[in-house]
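G.,

No rush on this.
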Amino acid sequence: MDRLKYILVAALAISCQQISFAQKSNSITELNEIDKKINESIYITTNANSFLTGETLFYKLFCIDKSTNAAKNFSKVAYAALVDSNKKIVFTHKLFLENGAGNGDFFIPTTLETGNYKLIGYTNWMLNKNASGFFNIDIYIVNPYKEESNTTVASNELASLESVTDSNISFDFKTKTYNNRDPIELGINANSEEFTKGNYTLSVRKTDGFLSQNKTNFKELPAENLSRNSNLQIDNTNFIFPELRGEIISGKISSATGDIKNKKVALSVIGKNYYLKLAKTDDLGRFIFNLEKPNSSSNIVVQVVEDNEKEYTVEIDKTKNIDLSNLNFPSLQFNSEFKKNITERLIASQIENAYYNVKKDSTLNSNDSIPFYGNLSTEFKLDAFTRFPTMEETITEVVKGVVYRKVKNDYFIHIYDYDPNYESTLPALVVVDGLIIKDLNELFKYNPKNMYKINIVRGVYYYGAKSFNGLISFTTKNGDYETKLKGNFIIRPELLRPQAKKEYFQPDYSTNKSLRIPDYRHQLVWMPKVDLNNSKSKITFYTSDVSGKFEIILEGFSATGKPVYIKDFIEIKKSDLN
């Protein structure tokens, strides 16, 4: 696999030098041979297949080998999108993959119409095959706030309520009957290391679907859904760079008067966990940024970093259109209890949404808190010093080794080298919340009370394709610095951002079972990553105020790619508290 990556990096380099794949048949042949060995595909599982507006669709995406189903680590980024029956995209999510998997969720708004939808999944590499090489499953949505249209006559069939077992992995219950707000301890037993090291999701949900169509699992999918790309060739008209190391953002610069070759372009993802990248253009003014770590901030600035930057115009490449023409949408087929189930779920979702603020999911911060300049900086947290009213005083009195100068009406910052006998003529790299600042006048007008800390790195500092006389990085308290610079050389593109990791809300009734906040959860558990660190793992959660039959589903793949799908049921009875 490493060898394949090196080949692809070489192919990427060729493309960056503007040697068109369309004109190099040997390159296309090589890429198709590589694709046969990569054999990449997508599988998506969801918490259900039928939803009301006001509910949340949870999903997990697996990037797998089409032949073995084993996790693939080739692409580091994948995409999930919801498509309506008019073949219009409702949402697109970008997911960073860990061990070939990623997950997300989507709150279904009341703007959506009743009907059949498709949830599709793909990687950039897969779209090089005529932009139609994606996985898809059916999703059914009912909007009870709008008149239903084009719905079929209700079917008398009910969704299957039969248990599904697997000889390699199983559930372990102390009992299958519980009361409202009871704790449940669910054991999961695996018979070998192959299954304890698998990749699974766990869903516990009330069996109150309103359709006769069952949720499809991996074993029931048509073979062509996972192998539709097998005989397709790489599309040589609009090659998409595979995201081997992370998120790729590309574009180009143009100029009516200046040279566009070997020019520096910076990308800043501004925020508390900011990100800064520098790239150099090729002969045709094209540039590529590769963001190895996920950052969900939408505050992005791309700018030309040259002395004559106002002579340039910068643009970001548009995403490739996906060919949705082959999607087929079956009609809705309601079961005999659809009216009762829709009414109960509608009331429950309205109550849950009313208490959203006390039941929020938690966004998880990245484990990597190391800034782009590493750990070698000297840090000044300003609250540890006397606060000064101006940036001039703050730099002079707090930041050792840094001085500013004002020549006529322009400010300059100089960082002293470690060697007192050395004086560099290079400018310092000045950054605020990940944004490179060339015009320091606006920085010196900024209120230092809003600054959290200042970091400096002395000596000649190399970043990307450019060298500087040291680095000074300012971090604001809220990570919300806004530059006033305007022009064609600096843009704020609206780019699809990676989904933030979440820890989904779970109530804890261990100390007070009769909390006054109502609990009308129909989805008791959605656990996108189940850790079976030993052969007998246990998961604890609480029932809600909703009674009835609940299904427990574990789905995923073993370490060697064997598909796993097991299902069982529990009964929740109405307690005296209700």
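When you get to it, here's the other one too:
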Amino acid sequence: MHLLWYYSGRRIHVNKEEARKKIDELTDLLNEHNYKYYVLDHPEITDYEYDMMINELINLEKQFPELTREDSPTQRVGGEPLSSFTQVQHNVPMLSLSNSYNKEDLIDFDRSIRKSIGEKIEYVVEPKIDGLSVNLKYEKGKFIQGATRGNGIVGEDITKNLRTVKTIPLKLKEEIDIEVRGEVYISRETFVKLNRKQEENGGTIFANPRNAAAGSLRQLDSKVTAKRNLDIFVFNIQRMENMNISKHIEGFEYLKSLGFKTSIYEVCKSIEEVVDQCEKWSEKRSSLGFEIDGLVIKVNDLTQREKLGTRSKSPRWAIAYKFPAEQQKTKVKNIVVQVGRTGALTPTAELDPVRVAGSVISRATLHNEDYIKEKDIRIGDTVIIEKAGDVIPAVVRVIFDERTGKEEPFEMPTICPICKEETFRLEGEAVTRCMNAACPAQLRRGLIHFVSRDAMNIDGLGESIVTLLLENELIKDAADLYYLKKEDLLPLERMGEKSAQNLIDAIEKSKKNDLERVIFGLGIKLVGARAAKLLADEFKSLDGLIKASDEEITAVPEIGHKMAESVVAFFKEDRNLEIVEKLRDVGVNMQSLKENDEEDENIEKKFEGLTFVLTGTLEKYKRSEAKKIIENLGGRVSGSVSKKTSYVLAGAEAGSKLEKANQLGVKVISEEEFEQMV
């Protein structure tokens, strides 16, 4: 068999043996250029030259697929979707780290080590990358398996997804058997672009780069992962036979020589030098192109590590230093009110732009009327803000000494700013609401929610298209989407023949979704994706749920009284029942498609080993309901914050527990983040 192909303007005839040689040559050459471009950040050829070579390789592999090598750069685009991830038992446990939050903690750590072994200690300080920890396994230099950390003993096999990460070598520079540990992350620039694209497509907006990296790696479709532009730093040799390495930094240099991308590090001769590094990086962390939430301090000498040993879940020879939450001063220019899809009026502070923890902040949610009154926040005030848990911009306090007397107190509007209907604050709730179900703001946000990835998942129907459909009066509710024709879409801006047909096809495809997506898509107050799944599994059909009583719904595990009341109230509204009937008439599935009711074991153990503290007023749950969810997923709820606390779930009016969490560096999460975790 002979092949014709083009390269550098030459037309060449090759047989299979010639193709084999050329494929090997191109594969090795392209892998080397990938290494120089992605790992060393030192490209030696132009993009055009690279594209010419990769196209030549693709053409050769198409003609001789049996000659395609496993480490070919063409194999990084992702393969067929998986139905689920299989579990992987780690050969070497992937331990977590104990945390420190100040100089005293570090001195105690050093004192304990010197007391244990009575020797001079040298430390290595590395950035603590805010990503997802993975284990990479190589046999004879070839990448054969990659897994998540999981619980440290058992993780998930995500090999197909990790093969799409361009900084993970598919073939090492030596033919050795080795397992290494690294942190997969997403750069700040890529994170901003990803969220912008998610928003345009009506997808889930990621709370932070870590969530984005974790979500991308746990995609069942590796082609989705390939588009996320993930990166990795490899920082430890987990297992290797005949390892002739005596110090951690020697391991770093050896990993580099094998072709891995490794992080920066500093060697410190004393704990005082370590403290200096912590203070230095606290100041310049925002200069990096990726997020770090602290530093990792490790004993450099591997023999000393063996003497020190490990605890059940963490090594005695290493500790993480967590950065304190960064605070900045700014001014409240205005307080505006946004109307959500459930009618909730959320006041938001418009701020003089200020850089906090690596990003420019110009807005911060003020939660509700009580939060504003408690902190006495006024328009014109000078305030201190921070990113709660290094994620959510929050007003910490007002600087009362800088008041001039011209500041204006804020009053929650009694009239909806969008539809001009009266607003209400129900007894026992912290939230003021617009009760007009036909409010344009609620309708628009409700539609964006209905088509979103976790709901009906209508590909291509993002926020901008929903807005266009409303502005052109093509739809008035979610059911109207199913009456659209291609001819209706063609006059819209940037809507061509093909994109219009694709959108119609995506809408049609969504009719076959499982019941849980329909329930979630309806936008019932307090009902998230997890609750929608539980309700679908229990009642089997939408009719069954509509007919269910408060008591029957509350009997479902994890469903609390407030949520049950909300479901019953939703289906008492004639307007909501009309939409359900319209959806039924156009053929949207109203039945559970699942063959059994078995719970996903991985979900049930999701919070195993985690400790939560609840503080403040939660909008969507009673404290007891949130506690029930955490405990059902294997976690525990504590009444006080300590260094052992995993997360603080903070609602409005959070007080001393939130302050202590920030002091100790404990991660603070919002209700939205909690729902994502669930």
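Residues 117 and 307 are 7 Å apart (CA to CA). The longest strand covers residues 327-339.

Enjoy the weekend,
O.
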